[in-house]
Design a protein that fits this description.
Elements lengths: L1 H10 L7 H25 L2 H22 L1 H21 L14 H33 L6 H17 L5 E3 L2 E3 L7 H29 L2 H22 L5 H12 L4 H13 L3 H11 L5 H22 L6 H22 L4 H15 L10 H13 L10 H15 L5 H17 L6 H15 L1 H30 L31 H17 L13 E6 L6 E6 H9 L5 E3 H8 L3 H13 L3 E6 L2 E6 L9 E3 L8 H31 L1 E3 H14 L7 H13 L3 E4 L5 E4 L2
Helix pairs in contact: 1-4, 2-3, 2-5, 3-5, 3-6, 5-6, 5-7, 6-7, 7-9, 8-9, 8-11, 10-11, 10-12, 12-13, 12-14, 13-14, 13-15, 15-16, 15-17, 16-18, 17-19, 17-24, 18-19, 24-25, 24-26
């Protein structure tokens, strides 16, 4: 308080204030103090003495400034105003200027900079860098002194303000925090020394050690440098320092790291791969390099394992794909920290594997996945001891692969055909499992994708009600039925069932039952047309002519042939064909199935085929099913399915093109093709090929939906 009063009295002295004398006396005091401090610093341990003298000087100068606040708020402020007025009154091109007094804080630091720092700068910076190198080498240093000296450089910048200068746009005064002293004198040399040190050390270490040991060393060094930076240098240098260290330790050796990453993936070396990921994540494009190697490796391994399958059947194919996905998904979790980039990379690799053609014209994955689902959902000896929870779990695994399938419309076609067979022949292992699978598909692809599948399920449920109503109708009309009759009434648009190109005459009892049902149904639903699908119908027949009684489940074709043998024991092929009206190929397949089951015996006499009832038939099973005739040829069935898919795609693409052009009216060729490809992938559940889109455009031009326009005929316009 005493110093403040004395300063106040000097500034308010009468008849003339002594403010200017006080200011210049303080300036001389600061200069003399700095010169004395410089002598002591040069004579002793530079870093230690500099740090001690700086602390005393910075504290003392702040005290003086606080005690001379009145001087700053009066005389110094007035002098600054006069300086500004003088500068504004000067000619724009003149270089005239007058001295402008600084505030006491900047004045004190400017004196220190001039009379101390600039004289010891070179030697002091050298000592600082040597201390930092000792710290890197594991030697003990006085970190507080090093940090204090470096901080003094920052304070010299952040506190000192240069005099105002005039620019052609007006007057400006540089703001604080430019750090030019710190950056020019220390930071540049520090970063250069750091780069040289780690370039030299990394090259030497790599020449004597393997990649795994080097990564451990590099990671440890980077962690040490982060701690060292926070302990010693200014925060403005953190990012520059980190980049320099990361470049010398990681980026400079990218080729070496890249060459080793696939071996770590092959050996599933989680520790080394995780360490490599952490290192590469630090540098620009480092993750991209690892990602490309990961995608390439997973794709190659997946295709190699698929190619190694001896027999390409659904179970082995799906289990192989699931094993590949599970293996590398676990690697992403454990080694790559479930990074979204690598999760997406695994998806990309799996999509490439699943949609690989494996030497065929088209990918086989949709068909094989659909058949695998059929194996799970179809009641069979293989599923007899499998509980429902396990089936549900396997169906969820199928959905993991299904999301990678590009041609989801092909899967839908095969799956719907197999579902139709399971529903018609009551072969589903569980209604809950069937419904769960349909729900999974709906969640993945939307309601429209599963609309027909759900309609199929609804038709089966409604058919049960129709059969109950028919039974009531038969009782009410006192109709005598020769057999127990039930039917499925199915919507033709929802069910993938095709009529067989053959005539067929039902046996009398079956014909009468069909007629009664048609009468009942037309009375209830006037205007609807029933088309009987006899090739997928089934009949239960009891065999009473043998020593044991047997119950046989057969198709309508098989049953019609067997019922003929109630009249006599032998028929020729021509007689059976005349009676049933089946075409030759369908009848041959039907008779072959009965001969193979040994219910009929086949003999050929004078190029005439004769079929005789096997009265000596015997079997260990009293109930069995004749299945051969029901099973279509797999290659033919697949060909039909793919043909139906291609036909649907053509209609879909044409409709998409018309819809786009109707909205846009005029569109260039490239834009139209791109838009169609995007919409087909997003909504059509398949990826359209560009030649296919071009072909559909040409077809629509021929149909006069579109026409070419523009000077080069490279645009299309919609024809209303």
């Amino acid at each position: 308080m005493f110093i403040y009063e004395e300063a106040y009295f000097l500034c308010t002295a009468v008849p003339k204030a002594l403010s200017d004398k006080l200011y210049y006396s303080l300036e001389e005091f600061f200069r003399q103090t700095c010169e004395d401090a410089c002598k002591e610093i040069m004579a002793g341990n530079l870093t230690s003495v500099y740090h001690a003298k700086w602390q005393v000087y910075s504290i003392g100068s702040n005290i003086i400034r606080s005690q001379c606040r009145y001087l700053e708020s009066t005389w110094i402020k007035d002098e600054k105003d006069k300086y500004r007025q003088h500068m504004y009154s000067s000619q724009s091109g003149s270089d005239s200027r007058r001295d402008c007094p600084s505030d006491l804080g900047p004045l004190a630091f400017q004196q220190w900079k001039t009379y101390v720092f600039e004289k010891v700068q070179e030697r002091m910076i050298k000592d600082l860098l040597q201390d930092i190198q000792k710290d890197r080498d594991g030697e003990m240093i006085n970190a507080s002194e090093v940090q204090g000296v470096i901080s003094s450089l920052v304070e010299l910048d952040s506190t000192f303000k240069a005099p105002e200068i005039r620019s052609r746009h007006g007057y400006q005064q540089p703001g604080t925090g430019q750090l030019s002293v710190y950056q020019e004198t220390f930071e540049k040399q520090f970063l250069a020394e750091t780069a040289q040190f780690y370039q030299r050390e990394s090259n030497v270490y790599l020449s004597e050690n393997n990649c795994s040991d080097y990564m451990k060393k590099a990671e440890a060094r980077l962690q040490e440098e982060e701690i060292r930076a926070r302990k010693l240098i200014h925060s403005s240098s953190f990012a520059k320092h980190s980049r320099e260290c990361e470049y010398q330790l990681v980026s400079a050796h990218m080729d070496m790291l890249k060459g080793e990453c696939q071996s770590y993936m092959k050996n599933e070396d989680v520790d080394d791969l995780s360490r490599m990921y952490r290192l590469l994540r630090r540098v620009p494009e480092g993750v991209d390099v690892l990602l490309r190697e990961f995608e390439t490796y997973v794709t190659a391994v997946g295709r190699e394992q698929i190619a190694a399958i001896q027999e390409m059947e659904p179970r082995s194919y799906v289990e192989c794909l699931l094993a590949v996905h599970a293996r590398y998904h676990q690697l992403v979790q454990n080694a790559l920290q479930t990074d979204d980039v690598f999760v997406a990379g695994l998806d990309k690799a799996c999509r490439s594997i699943v949609n690989h053609t494996m030497g065929a014209k088209i990918p086989q994955a949709p068909e094989l996945l659909a058949k695998y689902c059929d194996m799970l959902l179809k009641r069979s000896p293989a599923n007899k001891h499998v509980d429902e929870a396990e089936i549900m779990q396997k169906l969820m695994s199928v959905m993991t692969l299904f999301k990678y399938v590009d041609d989801k419309d092909v899967f839908q076609k095969f799956y719907s055909r197999m579902l139709a067979k399971r529903l018609i022949h009551s072969q589903s292992v569980s209604e809950e499992a069937e419904e769960k699978m349909i729900d999974n598909l709906k969640n993945e692809c939307g309601f429209e994708y599963t609309m027909k599948l759900q309609r199929m399920y609804t038709d089966v449920a409604l058919s049960a009600t129709v059969n109950q109503e028919f039974s009531a109708y038969v009782a009410q009309k006192n109709i005598v039925m020769d057999l127990d009759f039930s039917s499925f009434v199915l919507q033709s648009a929802a069910w993938p069932l095709n009529a067989v190109d053959t005539d067929f005459d039902l046996p009398g009892p079956m014909e009468r039952a069909v007629q009664h049902f048609e009468t009942f149904y037309h009375e209830k639903h006037n205007g609807r047309k029933l088309q009987w699908m006899h090739h997928v119908s089934k009949v239960d027949i009891k065999l009473k002519y043998l020593k044991k009684r047997y119950e046989v489940q057969a198709t309508s074709y098989q049953a019609s042939v067997l019922l003929m043998f109630n009249e006599r024991d032998t028929y020729s092929f021509a007689e059976i064909q005349e009676e049933t009206q089946l075409n030759a190929s369908e009848l041959t397949r039907t008779l072959d199935s009965l001969v193979k089951t040994r219910l009929l015996l086949h003999a050929t006499d004078n190029n005439t085929s004769a079929y005789e009832l096997n009265t000596g038939f015997a079997s260990n099973r009293t109930k069995f099913k004749i299945t051969q005739a029901v099973q279509a040829e797999p290659a033919k069935e697949a060909k039909e399915a793919y043909g139906a898919v291609q036909e649907h795609r053509v209609f879909y693409l044409q409709a998409t093109i018309v819809r786009i052009m109707k909205a846009r009216k005029l569109l260039g060729h490239t834009d139209l093709v791109q838009e169609v490809v995007v919409q087909s992938s997003r909504h059509g559940k398949f990826t359209a090929s560009i030649p296919q889109v071009k072909k559909c455009i040409e077809q629509l031009i021929d149909k006069e939906y579109l026409e070419r326009t523009g000077p080069n005929k490279d645009k299309y316009s919609y024809v209303a």
